[in-house]
DNA sequence: TAGGCCATCTGGTCCT
DNA sequence: AGGACCAGATGGCCTA
C-alpha cells in the first residue's frame, strides 16, 4: 500500500497512532532520523507527494503503529464483510429446496444450485404459453399462472403457502419465503432430469453434489443439455440443472 | 494422510 | 485517508 509509506499525514498527527506517545516525537523531526526517502517514496510518488499539503512527520514507530491499526481495522471490516456474505448465503440456502436430513450445502453448491434453480424457473416462465405452469420439486408443486403463484405440497410440512391472495388462488411470492421452505421427506420422490436435463448458460453449470435437486417441467419439454466438457466427475455426482 | 471446506489475514486496487 | 472489494495464502477442522 503506497499510502502506508506516507511519513506525514494531512492535518498533522494521526488519530489511530496517537496512543501512548500521543504527541509527536520531536526527535524525529530531524531529517537525520528519517527513513531514507528512497525507501519510503519511490521517485514518482515523491514527486506527487511534493504537491500535497503541509503535513506533519511521523516517527517510524508511529508509522508502524498506524499501519498496524489500519491492518486491524481492515481485518475487522473484512471479517464483518465475510460474515455478511455468509448471512446472505444462509438466507439463500433457506430459500432453496432441501431435504431435512441433508447436510448443509457448501458455499459453492448453494450458489450453483441457486443459479440453476432460478434459471430453470426462468425457463419455465419463458416457455409459458399463457396457461398455468407447474414446477415440481419433489412433492412440492409450484404453480405459476397469470393470477399469481401457488406453492403446494403433498406433505404437511409445506402445505399450501398463501402469502397473498389473487382471485381464487392462494398465491405466494417466488422465491418463497424462508418460512415456506420446501421440505421433502424422500430423495427418491424428486423428479430428475437425469442426463436429459438442460443446463443454464453458465460456465460451471454442472453440480457435483447429489444434493443438487432437479426442477422438473412436466408440461413443457426443455431442450437437451449442452455437452459437459472438462468437468471432473466424482462418484456421487449426478447431472443437475 | 490427503483432500475438501472454511475462516481469517493480507496486500492490492478502486472509489469516495 | 479510509472503506469496499477482491484474490491469494495460510492454517484448522473434518472425513474418507
From TrEMBL:
Residues 69-121 form the BHLH domain. One of its GO terms (molecular function) is protein dimerization activity. Residues 1-58 are annotated as: Disordered. One of its GO terms (cellular component) is nucleus. SUPFAM superfamilies: HLH, helix-loop-helix DNA-binding domain (SSF47459). GO terms for biological process: axon development; positive regulation of transcription by RNA polymerase II; sensory organ development. Pfam families: HLH. InterPro entries: bHLH_dom (IPR011598), bHLH_transcription_factors (IPR050359), HLH_DNA-bd_sf (IPR036638). Keywords: Developmental protein, Differentiation, DNA-binding, Neurogenesis, Nucleus, Transcription, Transcription regulation. Gene3D superfamilies: Helix-loop-helix DNA-binding domain. Residues 9-29 have a biased composition (Low complexity). Signal peptide: none annotated. This is Basic helix-loop-helix neural transcription factor TAP. It comes from Camponotus floridanus. The lineage of its organism: Eukaryota, Metazoa, Ecdysozoa, Arthropoda, Hexapoda.
Amino acid at each position: 500500500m503506497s499510502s502506508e509509506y506516507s511519513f506525514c499525514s494531512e492535518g498533522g498527527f494521526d488519530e489511530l497512532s496517537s496512543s501512548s506517545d500521543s504527541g509527536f516525537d520531536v526527535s524525529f523531526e530531524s531529517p537525520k532520523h528519517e527513513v531514507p526517502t528512497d525507501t519510503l517514496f519511490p521517485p514518482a510518488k515523491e514527486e506527487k507527494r511534493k504537491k500535497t499539503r503541509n503535513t506533519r512527520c511521523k516517527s517510524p514507530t508511529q508509522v508502524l503503529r498506524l499501519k498496524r491499526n489500519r491492518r486491524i481495522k481492515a481485518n475487522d471490516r473484512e471479517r464483518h464483510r465475510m460474515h455478511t456474505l455468509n448471512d446472505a448465503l444462509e438466507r439463500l440456502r433457506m430459500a432453496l429446496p432441501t431435504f431435512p436430513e441433508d447436510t448443509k450445502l457448501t458455499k459453492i453448491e448453494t450458489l450453483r444450485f441457486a443459479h440453476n434453480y432460478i434459471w430453470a424457473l426462468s425457463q419455465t416462465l419463458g416457455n409459458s404459453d399463457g396457461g398455468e405452469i407447474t414446477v415440481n420439486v419433489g412433492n412440492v408443486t409450484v404453480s405459476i399462472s397469470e393470477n399469481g403463484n401457488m406453492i403446494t405440497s403433498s406433505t404437511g410440512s409445506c402445505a399450501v403457502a398463501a402469502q397473498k391472495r389473487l382471485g381464487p388462488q392462494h398465491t405466494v411470492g417466488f422465491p418463497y419465503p424462508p418460512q415456506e421452505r420446501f421440505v421433502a421427506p424422500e430423495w427418491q420422490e424428486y423428479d430428475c432430469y437425469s442426463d436429459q436435463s438442460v443446463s443454464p448458460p453458465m460456465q460451471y453449470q454442472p453440480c457435483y453434489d447429489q444434493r443438487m435437486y432437479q426442477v422438473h417441467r412436466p408440461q413443457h419439454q426443455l431442450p437437451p443439455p449442452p455437452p459437459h466438457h472438462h468437468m471432473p466427475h466424482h462418484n456421487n455426482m449426478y447431472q443437475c440443472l
